[in-house]
Structures are given as structure tokens and as C-alpha cells.
Amino acid sequence: MKITSIVIVALMMMVQPLYADDNESADTVPKTEKKPNFIKRFIDSFDRQDENYIEPQHYIFTVMAQSTYSYDRYTLRSAEPSVQRVTFVPDGTLKVGPYFGWRWVFGGYTFSLTHSDFSKKKTEMELNLYTSRFGIDAFYRRTGVDYKLHDVSLGEGIDTEPLEGLMFDGVKAGITGVNLYYIFNDRRFSYPAAFAQSTCQKISCGSWLAGISYANNTLEFDYERMQDILGRYLPPEEARIDSALMISSLHYHDIDLTGGYAYNWVFARNWLFCASGQVGVGYKYSSGDASNTVIDPRFTDFSFYNINLNLVGRFAVVFNNTRWYAGISTIVHSNTYRESRFSANNIYGNVSMYLGYNFGLKKRYRKKK
User: Fold this and answer.
1) pLDDT bracket for residue 189 (50, 70, 90)
2) What is the pTM of this model?
3) Are 2 and 112 in contact (CB under 8 A)?
């Protein structure tokens, strides 16, 4: 097996700050002791959880095995009056890998089980930081050239069934960005319990979320290659691409203000189901190349400003008895770019299954044994 990507996942276990081997809540410090300095109080502020709702991490180390299935879907669509739609869907990729965690740092390798030449051209790196109070998603993705045509619509009455599933190497897409969000009910709601397995949610609870995100998106589309394929499989009078889809490249930046809600449902002892959704109101500014003389000259520069909606969904089912943990989680992103004649939508994400073991019991919990 060949390592095709490195994924560093920093799943922060803020229930054990860095400055001590084991820490009690600031509320438990005897009044006779010297008041902690500002830095210690600041770190403690991330650890003031209501233990009636959240069980802190009991261990210092963890090992885990994980498999991740990644998927992607890109849709280009022209606007009225001649609506055309082309969707590109690559084969999913399956990766497995071992992970090791110490306190709040959790990292490892993923090994791709896909051996095609197409998969070698894919690059995916992601960092996710889950704490009780805030979260960070940083990502870098570059697709390969293994897209297939799917759900093609060239207009009413045109049969596009012959195009379904055809390989199309004329699309390349990429996204680089970061998403920051704040969790309001951090004392009673735990994102790490669902996605970092560093705490356990004991009583069902939810929280509102708010944040900001930035993304740099790129798209290259060989519309001449697409025209050639249409000419081979469709009658000449039907094998036509709308001028609005004749885009050789598109590059846009996206700044979002995000808001949403997350809920942890404890449906049985040591079991948790989490559902979370965030909506981003995005301000996009772009540049591109629509190199076709048929297009209106005002459209040729392909530079404009727009506002669109983006979505992030997270779902997880977790078993965690503090020693052993296992579960399945999925994260789905939907980014939309739209203007008067053209729109693009990219849906991507991954589904992960994992099994892990914690060890190295903290002093605090050894005392209770």
C-alpha cells in the first residue's frame, strides 16, 4: 500500500491542560492556596465543565484504528432560458490508518486502498480542532482526474443516458480554507464527546454555534473536451454546450459568517448521537476565464461579487465507556457559487469508522480506585 496523504487531526482534550500531569477544576482549589496566575486561569477557563453533564477524559494516552471513505460531487449549471446541468462524480476513496494520541494532540497516517493512477493525483489534508468552547477546521483538497459524468441535462427532450458513467478527465477542482466557530453552551455541551472521543456526554444537551470561515476555491473545466464527448455520443443537433458553461477556469474566494446548532442525544448508557448543522452566508469575490467569443463581452472577464449560502453538517454515533470507544461519524460540506448566468456547487465530505483504546490513568482517577 502507498501512503497518498497525511492527515493530522488535533482533537483537543482541553479537560487536561498542558501545565500539569492531572488537573482539578479551578473551582476545587482550596481558598487557602495562592490564586493562580493569569495564564493558568485562562487555560482553566476552557475546562470549567459541568460534570453532571460531561465526564472528563480519564486517561493520558490513546491508540486508535480508523477507516475513512471520502466522496465528492461537482455540479455546473447554466441559468434560464436554456438550463443545462452537468454533474461530475469521482469514485470514492477508502483510507485506513493507525493513530496515537497524547493529551490534546492526536495524529497519524492514512493509507489509501485505491491504487489507480487517478487516485495518485489526489491530495487531501485536514486538521480538526474540537474543544469545549471553540472548533477549528483547516483543509486542503485537490481532486484527481477520475471524474465520471452523472445526471447530465442538456435541455428538454434530449436523451443523455449514453453519457451516464463516462470517464471525464477534463475537470480539476481544489479548495483551501479554514473554519472557526464558537460553542456557546460549552459547560454542558461537548463537541469533543462526539468527534474527538476525549470526553463523554452524560446528559442530552445542545448548543448554538457561531463563527467565520474563509475558503480559496479553484476550478478548471475543459469544455472543448466535453464538447467532443457530446459529439461522439449524441446527435449533432443535440451535442451543444450552453455558452455560460464554456469556462476554462474559475478562481474565487469565499468569506462566510456562520451560525448553527448542535445537539448531543444520550440515548443509552455510554452511547451518544450527535447532529450538527451550520449555515454560512458567504461573500464571494472571483476571477476567471470564459474564453469564448460567443459570450457577451461584459461576461468575458468573469469577475463579479456575490453572496451565497454554504452548509456544513456533522453527524456521529459514539460508544465510549472512558476506556474503550468506537463509532462512526460523517462531515458534509456544500459550497455554492452563483451569478446571473452560471452556478457551481461542490458537495464533499467523509465517513469514518474507528475503534480506540485509552490508557495511562490520570492521578485524579487513580485516587478513586
Assistant:
1) very high
2) 0.79
3) yes
